[in-house]
């Protein structure tokens, strides 16, 4: 019996050594650059995507939802013709953490290089980031990015095949929209942003002119600013009826057939409404302000992105008002938008209370970080898992109006980590970080939480709280802000918002309705079983009301002007028929 411990130890050692030396066989992918498109060594994020079918190129099928396709990513520096970048089992991916875990089967494979440029910031840091090239910071569409032609492969059980991929395609330049009678396109160099980024940086705008703009040179117009994601052109305005030969499509998001026809009809209906005699004559502006981190800046000043709030409010807006005869005063400027644009509308109104006269914030991104989607970043220790001693529940990221969950916070963040480290994915959690976080020693944003584990950094959370938690800022500063914001705050959200954004709106409403003195005298409203982008319309479904932002708040804006404009305000020159 004395030899039994030795036998047990030997048994353990033998099997431990076996586990240590045996690895699952795995396929290997080797990526090179074609000499036909090579110009100089490139920095960037190299992405490898495998798709189940060829209904579209793999680069357009990446998501964190139930239809997620395998993707893997790694940084490359000075990538040149002599280099061969290898994707093996050690490269992190999503939804499979390793290539060795991919299910056997046939796939369509493609590689994309998201090219980084070097920025020498005024803070003294040097960072590498993808420059927007007119596409709105979309790595799979950005002009100048390299990609390969998709081809079919088969991965077998215990496969050790090597696949060669050649980057021999370049995403072409994007055609700039042309001015029309109604819509003008403006591009303006920002001195503030150029100084921060160490190179020329520009802001853009699409401006919809009112009827009779040229015929009434005496008129000076109020300004409506429609905040949102990067607009390639002014959307939702069409001077001709819907195309008769347009083949109806299907919107999976709204489960609506022929949504393209509906969009064209709504755009034409708005054009006709815009020309009616009783419609107020406004300027409507959609702003282009992409950053090297995202398709827009969130319209506020930021340590890592620079002074976008000041640049938009003090450089771009006055420039547009001068060009197109705006009133040029705070009482005549209004903000609205949904989702990102909803947060921006409210944040800009709070940060610049005297410069704007009202915001209409629909389905805003989290406006109280105690409800940062389903996280409380001040009290929770981990963003991915609910706290429990004896079980583990992953925290959801997305649901439908019936509560069916399609992704989790961990999954969304792990996909972002594949697309880019150091907050460079160009996706949702990373742009919140790039906007709200203090700058790290390396010049990139400090992480709110560990991207792999979800462990929250509460020092960073406190920085977020003091600078960007809109409910907290309002409560902290209401003594000085209350009189300036009275009657200006309007918030709308579906009570089944896909990203649980209604939870933060509830907390904001609790403060506004019960503790404000003076009373905020605004509006908070909810859509019954309404999903993301509900904007206050109780009469129509989401897929219709989301197309009517440019007209639905006009009655409330007119009421606000009548109640708040100063005695000497021009209320007549722009009210012609």
Report on the structure:
The chain is α+β, with helices and mostly antiparallel strands and 577 residues long. It folds into three domains: 22-170, Sandwich (Immunoglobulin-like), CATH 2.60.40; 183-368 and 470-564, Rossmann fold (3-Layer(aba) Sandwich), CATH 3.40.50.1820; 371-466, no CATH class. The protein contains 13 helices and 25 strands. It has helices at 4-21, 191-197, 259-274, 308-323, 340-351, 409-419, 428-436, 458-468, 470-485, 502-514, 542-545, 549-552, 554-564; strands at residues 28-33, 42-51, 71-79, 85-87, 93-94, 105-120, 126-129, 146-147, 151-155, 162-167, 169-170, 183-189, 202-208, 223-227, 250-251, 256-257, 283-288, 301-302, 306-307, 333-338, 359-362, 396-399, 405-408, 489-494, 523-527. Strands 2, 3, 5, 6, 7, 8, 9 and 11 form an eight-stranded antiparallel β-sheet that branches. Residues 1-22 have low confidence and may be disordered.
Subunit arrangement of the protein? single chain
Structural class: alpha+beta
CATH architecture of the largest domain: 3-Layer(aba) Sandwich
CATH-assigned homologous superfamily of the largest domain: Alpha/Beta hydrolase fold, catalytic domain
By DSSP, the count of extended strands is: 25
Name the poorly predicted regions: 1-22
Work out the radius of gyration: 26 Å
């Amino acid at each position: 019996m004395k030899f039994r411990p030795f036998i047990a130890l030997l048994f353990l050692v033998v099997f431990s050594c076996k586990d240590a030396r045996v690895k699952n066989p795995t396929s290997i992918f080797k990526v090179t650059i074609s000499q036909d498109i090579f110009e100089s060594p490139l920095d960037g994020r190299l992405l490898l995507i495998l798709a189940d079918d060829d209904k579209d190129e793999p680069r357009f099928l990446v998501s964190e939802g139930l239809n997620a396709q395998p993707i893997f990513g790694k940084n490359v520096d000075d990538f040149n013709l002599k280099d061969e970048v290898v994707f093996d089992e050690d490269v992190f991916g999503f939804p499979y953490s390793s290539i060795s875990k991919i299910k056997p089967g046939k796939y369509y494979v493609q590689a994309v290089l998201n090219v980084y440029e070097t920025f020498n910031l005024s803070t003294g840091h040097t960072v590498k980031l993808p420059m927007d090239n007119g596409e709105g910071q979309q790595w799979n569409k950005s002009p100048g990015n390299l990609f390969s032609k998709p081809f079919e492969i088969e991965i077998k059980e215990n496969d050790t095949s090597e696949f060669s991929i050649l980057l021999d395609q370049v995403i072409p330049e994007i055609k700039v929209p042309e001015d029309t009678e109604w819509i003008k396109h403006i591009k303006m160099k920002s001195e503030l942003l150029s100084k921060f980024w160490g190179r020329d940086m520009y802001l853009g705008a699409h401006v919809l002119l009112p009827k009779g703009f040229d015929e009434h040179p005496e008129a000076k117009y109020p300004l409506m600013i429609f905040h949102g994601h990067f607009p390639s052109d002014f959307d939702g305005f069409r001077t001709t009826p819907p195309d008769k030969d347009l083949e109806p499509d299907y919107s999976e998001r709204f489960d609506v057939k022929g949504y393209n026809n509906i969009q064209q009809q709504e755009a034409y209906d708005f054009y006709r409404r815009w020309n009616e005699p009783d419609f107020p004559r406004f300027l409507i502006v959609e702003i282009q302000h992409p950053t090297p981190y995202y398709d827009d800046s969130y319209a506020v000043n930021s340590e890592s992105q620079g002074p976008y709030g000041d640049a938009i409010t003090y450089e771009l807006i006055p420039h547009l008002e001068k060009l197109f005869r705006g009133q040029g005063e705070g009482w005549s400027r209004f903000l609205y938008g949904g989702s990102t644009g909803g947060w921006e509308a409210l944040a800009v109104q709070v940060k610049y209370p005297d410069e704007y006269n009202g915001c209409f914030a629909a389905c805003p991104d989290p406006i109280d970080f105690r409800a940062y989607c389903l996280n409380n970043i001040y009290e929770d220790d981990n963003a991915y898992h609910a706290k429990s001693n004896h079980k583990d529940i992953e925290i959801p990221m997305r649901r439908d109006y019936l509560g069916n969950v399609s992704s989790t916070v961990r999954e969304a963040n792990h996909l972002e980590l594949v697309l880019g480290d150091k907050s460079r994915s160009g996706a949702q959690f990373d742009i919140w970080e790039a906007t709200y976080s203090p700058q790290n020693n390396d010049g990139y944003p400090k992480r709110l939480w560990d991207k792999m584990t979800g462990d929250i950094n509460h020092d960073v959370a406190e920085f977020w709280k003091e600078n960007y938690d809109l409910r907290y800022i309002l409560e902290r500063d209401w003594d000085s802000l209350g009189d300036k914001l009275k009657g200006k705050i309007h918030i709308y959200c579906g009570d089944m918002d896909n990203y649980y954004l209604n939870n933060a709106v509830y907390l904001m409403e609790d403060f506004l309705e019960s503790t404000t003195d003076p009373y905020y005298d605004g509006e908070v409203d909810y859509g019954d079983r309404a999903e993301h982008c509900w904007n206050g319309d109780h009469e129509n479904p989401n897929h219709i009301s989301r197309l009517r932002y440019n007209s639905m708040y006009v009655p409330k804006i007119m009421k606000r002007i009548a109640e708040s404009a100063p005695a000497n305000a021009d209320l007549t020159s722009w009210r012609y028929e």
